[in-house]
Write a structure and sequence with these properties.
- By secondary structure, the protein is mainly alpha-helical.
- The chain has two domains: 1-190, Growth Hormone, Chain: A; 207-399, MFS general substrate transporter like domains (Growth Hormone, Chain: A).
- Helices cover 78% and strands 0% of the residues.
- The chain is built from 17 helices and no strands.
- Helix 3 packs antiparallel against helix 16 (341-370).
- The longest helix has 30 residues, at 218-247.
- The two termini are 39 Å apart.
Length: 413
């Protein structure tokens, strides 16, 4: 069966399942910060231990994503997603019963990091891209990414309410309930395994041949390197903005409102850039996102901080937050086709997660040494501008060995 043969019910079941799975997986993961003071107090770990667990989660997610992509491309996404959901549940269980930093790292770091490889953006974008025609692919990936941004609005209030009324362990039981909801979503999204790409969308190459093509393609390498900068900028902001606001004498509620604004405007930005990606060169849009982010960071950290400027900054960054997801996935498909999309996006995502780790750790290190974030935000702006302009000049010609030969008509005598 091809995507064109799907009826509306089948297509919406597949896309809805991918969106729900992505939304809940990311929503729970982005809410873990709410548990920090309670776990630190009750388990007896330090704030540094909790931060290390979150950093390890990012690295495990990045390191395992290419291998999960290989499994998904070879055996289908359904069993990969279901296995990831089981590991997610195990990770939450280990968090709930942790009595030391090791248990916390094993649960929220290693298990949840691996689970995100199986349930988050790379796999969801694989499903979305294969369920529609090439003409609708970019806007569909943007729509699924946008809906996936809503998970934080579900998981965060639920977690905060349960933590306040019943304790953090009960809140994790609530998260296990959300994990159960992910099971039918994965089964619905897994119907995409019965859909085959049209011949013109496939590459008749082995995985080693495709990897050689990718690592020898200057455009892919530029995109993956720029994705490193993307992770560095975003995690620098989410990790260190609350501390910066506290240093500026602002109430903690301003930070919470800023994160909410990022989540809300991210929905709009993800869909917008997915829609634009179907009408304009994706490499130009991707470079523009990095440049605009850098300019927003420069303006915010240069101007006198205030609650109003913080919310405006958060809204602007939200518009530019995950709009990169449909653009990066779309570029990989244009260069190498659908066959090994999850694998190649996973390799680029490893670069993103290394940047995420350095954004969190490097920003904190500079703050400890210098006592402020001046050097950190200047570095974030500089590398963002370099990445943006390099991305705009990216080579977007598919590798010669990956092109489908065009039959030449033989003239008749």
């Amino acid at each position: 069966m091809t995507a064109a043969r799907l009826n509306d019910v089948q297509r919406w079941t597949i896309l809805g399942g991918a969106a729900v799975m992505l939304s809940l997986a990311m929503g729970m993961r982005q809410s873990f910060g709410l548990f920090q003071p309670h776990i630190v107090r009750d388990v007896g770990v330090t704030t540094a231990d909790f931060s290390l667990a979150m950093a390890i989660q990012n690295i495990v997610w990045g390191v395992t994503q290419p291998f999960v992509g290989i499994l998904a491309d070879r055996f289908g996404v359904r069993w990969v997603m279901l296995a990831g959901i089981a590991v997610y549940a195990a990770g939450l269980g280990l968090m709930m019963t942790a009595t030391s930093a090791f248990g916390l790292i094993l649960g929220s770091g290693i298990c949840v990091g691996l689970a995100l490889s199986c349930t988050a953006s790379s796999v969801a974008m694989n499903v979305a891209s294969r369920a529609v025609s090439a003409a609708r692919r970019s806007v569909t990936m943007g729509a699924v990414s946008a809906v996936g941004s809503l998970g934080l609005t579900i998981a965060s209030p639920m977690a905060q309410t349960l933590i306040s009324t019943a304790g953090w362990q009960v809140a994790l039981w609530g998260f296990l309930g959300l994990v159960c909801v992910m099971v039918p979503a994965a089964i619905g999204a897994g119907q995409i395994d019965r859909v085959q790409a049209a011949p013109s969308q496939q590459l008749e190459q082995s995985l080693p041949a495709v990897l050689r093509s990718a690592f020898g393609h200057s455009g892919y390498l530029v995109m993956a390197t720029a994705f490193f900068v993307c992770g560095l900028q975003l995690v620098f902001i989410t990790t260190h903005l609350p501390t910066y606001l506290a240093d500026c004498g602002m109430d903690a509620s301003v930070g919470a409102a800023a994160l909410a604004a990022i989540g809300l405007f991210n929905v709009l930005g993800s869909y917008l850039f997915g829609w634009l990606g179907g009408r304009h060169p994706k490499q130009h849009l991707l470079g523009l996102v990095y440049i605009l982010r850098s300019l927003c960071i420069a303006a915010y950290f240069t101007l006198p901080p205030s609650p109003a400027s913080t919310i405006v900054f958060a809204a602007a960054m939200g518009m530019l937050w995950l709009g990169v997801v449909p653009l990066v996935n779309g570029l990989v498909v244009e260069l190498f086709g659908l066959r090994y999309m999850t694998t190649l996006v996973g390799i680029a995502f490893l670069s993103h997660q290394i940047g995420s780790f350095l954004g969190a750790w490097g920003g904190g290190m500079l703050y400890d040494v210098l006592g402020n974030y001046d050097a950190a935000w200047k570095a974030a702006v500089l590398v963002g501008l370099i990445a943006g302009f390099a991305q705009m000049l990216m080579n977007v010609r598919p590798p010669a060995e990956g092109r489908t030969p065009i039959p030449v008509p033989v003239p008749t005598v």
